[in-house]
Design a protein that fits this description.
The protein folds into 2 domains: about 260 residues, Aspartate Aminotransferase, domain 2, CATH 3.40.640; about 120 residues, Aspartate Aminotransferase, domain 1. The strands form 5 sheets. A 7-stranded mixed β-sheet has the order 2-10-9-6-5-3-4, sandwiched between helices. The protein starts with a strand and ends with a helix. The protein is an alpha/beta fold.
Length: about 375
């Protein structure tokens, strides 16, 4: 069997032609493809505004800048995420406070967040960064109610969940990142994500003022609109009005991203089929301690199982050309965050999950034959052990 990774991009002839068309055009960057991608993404997600940036980490960084985070501000997030979800706060001198996960969903536990907020005077915390881990959507309505009660903002990390959704208390479908419950949401276009642009990210919002500030921060803090500059020397004039960054996306990446976006729904359908196959294959297996399962609104970026002897299994699979992965090492256990005061044992649910989790191959071009090979080899590893 050929190598089976945990994730893989799918590039077709339409994607290639989209990039070739840009290469033949007048614009390789700062051209019309970026705007087209932004508009297409807003339509797909259901937000009023989208801002394309160079990667998901840049999206996080610009978001907290736009939300005016200051040194010493405290922001709550989950330890079960990639380090960027926490690091963006540290970039601005803020303080990250972790809260444990709900072991049944692997998501930030809103009740744990409430407990943190209740133990401190109002004004202690500035924001919350919930993460739609593995593609499973957070109940953002519950987080919004909590945020409003304590006067704090929400930045939704939806890198795993474009196309995902939850149903609110009125039974309405709420797309991840649609701006109804979070001030800002962010997405990633890394090759293993639903929409692959090589690298790239997107920020979505329904707040026009935040949108305009993001546009300026994305390009060095430079303002060129005639009505917003402090003075004008002519049509060429621009002003750097605050410290910004070069976090622009190129037209090459935007064209690829837009082409991928056009078939995003079919990718979600196939991911759900793969998830169903895994769930049905393992639902009665005694060696399974937990699994992602099939959940309404899940975007299935990852399919996770929890097992004993995870190290033995992952090494066994790699010898058979199956490259499963681990998502994630809890952020609070990283040496950097331990030096800041985090300790092993602080978040037992996240740590227990980490000790057992394994992300299985999950991407739309995974064939039924390849998936059955993965399932059979996992079963083979545990034969006679249970």
């Amino acid at each position: 069997m050929k190598k089976i990774p945990y994730g893989r991009q799918n590039i077709n002839d339409q994607d290639i032609q989209s990039v070739v068309d840009v290469l033949k055009s007048d614009w390789l960057t700062q051209g019309p493809s970026v705007k087209n991608f932004e508009e297409g993404f807003s339509k797909y997600i259901g937000s009023k505004f989208s801002v394309a940036v160079s990667n998901g980490t840049a999206a996080l960084h610009l978001s907290v800048l736009a939300l005016n985070i200051k040194p010493g501000d405290k922001v709550i997030t989950t330890p079960n995420t990639f380090v960027a979800s926490a690091n963006c706060v540290k970039y601005c001198g803020g303080e990250i406070i972790f809260a444990d996960i709900d072991p049944s969903t692997y998501l930030l536990d809103v009740n744990k967040v409430r407990s943190l907020l209740e133990k401190s005077p109002k004004g202690t915390y500035t924001g919350i960064i919930p993460v739609d881990f593995a593609g499973r959507p957070n109940d953002m309505e519950k987080f919004r109610e909590l945020a409003d009660e304590y006067g704090i903002w929400i930045l939704q990390d939806s890198c795993h969940s474009p196309g995902g959704y939850f149903n609110d208390s009125q039974g309405l479908k709420q797309n991840c990142g649609n701006g109804e419950f979070a001030e800002l949401a962010i997405f990633s276009f890394h090759p293993v994500k639903h929409i692959a642009a090589g690298e790239g990210g997107m920020i979505t919002t329904n707040d026009e003022e935040l949108y305009k500030r993001l546009l300026m921060l994305r390009t060095h803090g430079i303002q060129q609109e005639p009505e917003k500059v402090l003075e004008s020397h002519g049509c060429w004039y621009y002003e750097m009005q605050e410290l910004g960054y070069n976090y622009r996306l190129t037209d090459l990446q935007a064209a690829l991203g837009l082409s991928q976006l056009n078939r995003a729904n079919s990718g979600i359908i196939r991911r759900k089929e793969i998830a169903n196959n895994y769930y049905n294959a393992f639902k009665n297996s005694k060696f399974i301690k937990g699994q992602s399962g099939v959940v309404d609104g899940h975007a299935y970026h990852l399919y996770v199982i929890e097992v004993d002897d995870r190290t033995g299994l992952i090494n066994f699979l790699r010898d058979l050309n199956i490259f499963a992965q681990v998502h994630y090492i809890p952020v609070h256990l990283m040496p950097y965050y331990q030096e800041l005061g985090s300790n092993k044992g602080d978040f037992p649910y996240a740590e227990n999950y980490y000790n057992h989790c394994l992300s299985l191959p999950m991407f739309p071009t995974l064939t039924d034959e390849e998936q059955m090979y993965v399932i059979n080899k996992i079963n083979t590893f545990y034969i006679g052990k249970y």
